[in-house]
């Protein structure tokens, strides 16, 4: 026990309380073992004095042995568990043993909210647990396994493999030192000074966040409309026109005004006399309600219930700024319609649009050529969108208002002249072998099945295509670059612009969006298992398959050619002067010609077709750049910094992924690795990020969770969709994530000197 609070322990014999529970006899009222009377920790015997390292400081500590006396009833039996309550306000202590080894820190109950439960050394399967200890076991498991502000430790294990990330400097969690607590403020945590976002950009991001919340989560003002404010006595004058002035009081005027306000908020009945809202065939009102989210409106303050939910999800600084902004004046807000409904409100529901988005939407990297798996089909125009891996997680995910399937969708290009793919069958699976196949002829079930596919696809997009594959996997490369490559190294210079702000943005993402109980866990159907799913799918990640040509070939979306021979070796026989221009141009031309030989299975695959052009441009630039510094393969082999850099990435940065790495011992392998890395941070990220509002800003197109399984005749679409708060928050998040910032630099441009924050407290 630390000596700096030892005196307070001695001064108060009531600060640490211990109570025993019997394993032999149960209290029928509490359904727990019979309890002893409280025992209080009093003065003890000092056994050892030593120093413990805390935050790089040597802190004097003492090991103290205490004797406790318990009062129990005669029928108490053998103790099977005990509870420790730490009543200190600030100090924790390490409980080494209590007749048997405990080895755990006990933190103040004011910080943890619960007492610590310890059991005897005896091991039990749950079904063999003494009945008197069952409830205690459940309580202890719940407290340990489901903390409210933590997530599972990822990385360094076969169960939860993950990649290296920047040390945050956050303290360990108070009641579990194997986990890391969140930052005191999501905008004030350690990021190396050269990696921090500029103060201006950080403020711009905050302002964008505030604007998105005000636009989509603030209800329309209940104060009088503009006409009423400009003529405040309008109601009075109208009333006096019909009723003598002496016959109407101020109270009557207020009553009339309340009726007008009430009527103004009512929706007029459908002009075509269609069915009421209770009719499940009437979906128009649902669409109109959601479209109303984007309508111009005057806002005054947050709804109280929404504010309570936002407080749990949004950083305090942001919420305070929202409240302060609304307190200054009423705001007129408007929102641009997402592009998916800008021209046609129902285009998103068409099967051909569903297929198009799998090729050119916000997640165009998941579709596979089914013939690549099943050669016997003999048809290269059958495709699959496979999320069957989710089945193993559904027993944990489903419940608490979430209903999810593991889906598989088959799509075809109807004929050889058509480049358009359309879904023709959807398989919906649940744990235990329950499977259902839905085809387009089964309306409206077909539409509901597509909702579930879109929900699967959205979660994969957020957790894997976007976060994992373009943000998280890059972080180990950045760390290794800063640690192993001198700023004078040409490859450091080449890569530096592509790493701009990434570490800080990743830290912000972990603090705001990916934190336990945070925004994405609230919005996505995967909930608290979101990061576990990300870890599970990291097992499939291979660096050698991240190169766009290899990715397309792997998924069967392109036919193999001689693409592997694209990169020519360094120009060993070319003089590095003006006379080399012709040879360099020839090498560039060769690369474009070889690219053309990799034939796409579908010509109208925007991600692939446009992506190959960007990939080739990057590869051309990297090849010419490296040709300036590396004359032959030996130059690459003998570059100690590059070798150490690559070794750290493989063995430390991505130590949980042993497959998919090649040696960088040739000019060609260096160019391939650098091109792949730059592609991930540019072209791939562009494809999966900036279209989020255009597609995901319309909740019916990209629902993040669903609250009903395939509905029957008596169930409605409205009950299936997320609630209003979740949809509005999702739209706000899509709006925020899709925005470009004012300091963005595009491929081919030179980045201006970045303004650094004055200090880390900003």
TrEMBL record:
Cofactor: Fe cation
Ranges where the Lipoxygenase domain occurs: 375-762
PROSITE patterns registered for this protein in UniProt: LIPOXYGENASE_1 (PS00711), LIPOXYGENASE_2 (PS00081), LIPOXYGENASE_3 (PS51393)
Family matches, as Gene3D superfamilies: 3.10.450.60, Lipoxygenase-1, Domain 2, Lipoxygenase-1, Domain 3, Lipoxygenase-1, Domain 5, PLAT/LH2 domain
Keyword set, alphabetical order: Dioxygenase, Fatty acid biosynthesis, Fatty acid metabolism, Iron, Lipid biosynthesis, Lipid metabolism, Metal-binding, Oxidoreductase, Oxylipin biosynthesis
Enzyme Commission code(s) on record: 1.13.11.-
Cross-referenced InterPro entries: LipOase, LipOase_C, LipOase_C_sf, LipOase_CS, LipOase_Fe_BS, LipOase_plant, Lipoxygenase_dom_3, PLAT/LH2_dom_sf
Example GO biological process: oxylipin biosynthetic process
Pathway in which this enzyme or protein is active: Lipid metabolism; oxylipin biosynthesis
GO MF annotations, alphabetized: metal ion binding; oxidoreductase activity, acting on single donors with incorporation of molecular oxygen, incorporation of two atoms of oxygen
Short name of one Pfam family: Lipoxygenase
Family label: Belongs to the lipoxygenase family.
PANTHER family to which the protein is assigned, alphabetical: LIPOXYGENASE (PTHR11771)
Role noted for this protein: Plant lipoxygenase may be involved in a number of diverse aspects of plant physiology including growth and development, pest resistance, and senescence or responses to wounding.
Protein name: Lipoxygenase
């Amino acid at each position: 026990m630390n000596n700096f609070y030892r005196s307070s322990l001695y001064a108060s014999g009531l600060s640490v309380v211990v109570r025993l529970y019997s394993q032999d006899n149960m209290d029928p009222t509490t359904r727990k073992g019979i309890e002893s009377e409280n025992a209080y920790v009093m003065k003890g015997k000092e056994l050892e004095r030593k120093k413990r390292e805390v935050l790089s400081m040597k802190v004097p500590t003492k090991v103290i042995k205490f004797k406790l006396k318990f009062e129990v009833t005669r029928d108490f039996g053998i103790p099977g568990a005990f509870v420790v309550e730490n009543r200190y306000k600030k100090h924790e202590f390490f409980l080494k043993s209590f007749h048997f080894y405990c080895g755990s820190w006990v933190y103040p109950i004011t910080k943890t909210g619960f007492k610590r439960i310890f059991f005897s050394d005896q091991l039990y399967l749950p079904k063999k647990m003494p009945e008197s200890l069952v409830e205690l076991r459940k309580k202890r498991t719940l407290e340990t396994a489901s903390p409210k502000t933590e997530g599972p430790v990822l990385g360094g294990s076969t169960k939860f493999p993950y990649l290296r990330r920047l040390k945050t400097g956050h303290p360990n969690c108070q009641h579990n030192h194997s986990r890391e607590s969140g930052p005191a403020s999501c905008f004030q945590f350690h990021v190396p000074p050269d990696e921090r976002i500029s103060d201006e950009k950080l403020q711009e991001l905050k302002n964008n966040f505030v604007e998105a919340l005000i636009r989509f989560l603030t209800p329309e003002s209940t104060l009088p409309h503009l006409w009423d404010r400009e003529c405040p006595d309008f109601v009075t004058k109208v009333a006096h026109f019909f009723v003598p002035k002496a016959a109407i009081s101020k109270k009557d005027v207020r009553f009339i005004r309340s009726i007008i306000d009430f009527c103004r908020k009512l929706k007029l009945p459908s002009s075509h006399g269609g069915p009421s809202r209770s009719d499940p065939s009437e979906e128009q009102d649902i669409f109109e309600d959601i479209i109303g989210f984007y309508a111009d409106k005057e806002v005054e303050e947050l709804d109280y219930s929404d504010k309570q939910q936002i407080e749990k999800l949004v950083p305090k600084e942001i919420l305070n700024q929202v409240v302060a902004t609304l307190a200054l004046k009423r705001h007129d807000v408007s929102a641009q319609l997402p592009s998916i409904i800008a021209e046609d409100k129902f285009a998103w529901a068409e099967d051909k649009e569903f297929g198009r988005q799998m090729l050119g939407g916000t997640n165009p990297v998941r579709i596979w050529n089914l013939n690549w798996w099943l050669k016997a089909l003999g048809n290269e125009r059958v495709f699959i969108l496979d999320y069957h891996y989710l089945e193993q997680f559904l027993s944990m995910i489903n419940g608490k208002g979430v209903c999810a399937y593991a889906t598989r969708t088959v799509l075809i290009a109807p004929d050889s002249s058509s480049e358009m793919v359309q879904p023709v069958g959807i398989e919906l699976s649940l744990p235990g072998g329950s499977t259902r196949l839905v085809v387009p002829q089964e309306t409206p079930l077909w539409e509901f099945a597509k909702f579930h596919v879109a929900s699967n696809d959205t979660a994969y997009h957020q957790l894997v295509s976007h976060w994992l594959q373009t943000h998280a996997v890059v972080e180990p490369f950045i760390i290794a670059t800063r640690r192993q490559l001198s700023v004078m190294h040409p490859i450091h210079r080449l890569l530096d612009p592509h790493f701009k702000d990434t570490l800080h943005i990743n830290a912000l993402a972990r603090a705001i969006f990916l934190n336990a109980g945070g925004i994405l866990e609230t919005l996505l159907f995967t909930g608290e298992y979101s990061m576990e799913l990300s870890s599970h799918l990291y097992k499939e990640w291979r660096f050698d398959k991240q190169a766009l040509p290899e990715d397309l070939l792997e998924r069967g979306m392109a036919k193999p050619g001689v693409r592997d021979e694209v990169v020519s070796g360094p120009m060993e026989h070319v003089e590095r002067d003006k006379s080399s221009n012709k040879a360099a141009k020839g090498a560039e031309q060769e690369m474009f010609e070889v690219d053309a030989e990799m034939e796409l299975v579908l010509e109208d695959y925007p991600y692939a077709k446009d992506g190959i052009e960007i990939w080739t441009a990057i590869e051309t630039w990297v090849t010419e750049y490296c040709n300036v510094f590396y004359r032959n393969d030996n130059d690459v082999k003998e570059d100690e910094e590059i070798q150490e850099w690559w070794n750290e990435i493989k063995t430390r940065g991505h130590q949980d992924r042993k497959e998919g790495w090649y040696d960088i011992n040739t000019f060609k392998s260096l160019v391939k690795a650098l091109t792949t890395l730059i592609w991930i941070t540019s072209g791939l990220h562009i494809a999966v990020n900036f279209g989020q509002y255009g597609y995901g800003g319309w909740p019916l197109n990209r629902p993040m969770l669903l609250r009903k399984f395939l509905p029957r005749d008596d169930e409605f679409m409205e009950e299936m969709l997320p609630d209003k708060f979740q949809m509005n928050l999702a739209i706000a998040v899509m709006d925020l994530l899709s925005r470009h910032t004012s300091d963005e630099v595009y491929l081919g441009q030179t980045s201006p000197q970045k303004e650094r924050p004055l200090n880390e407290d900003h």
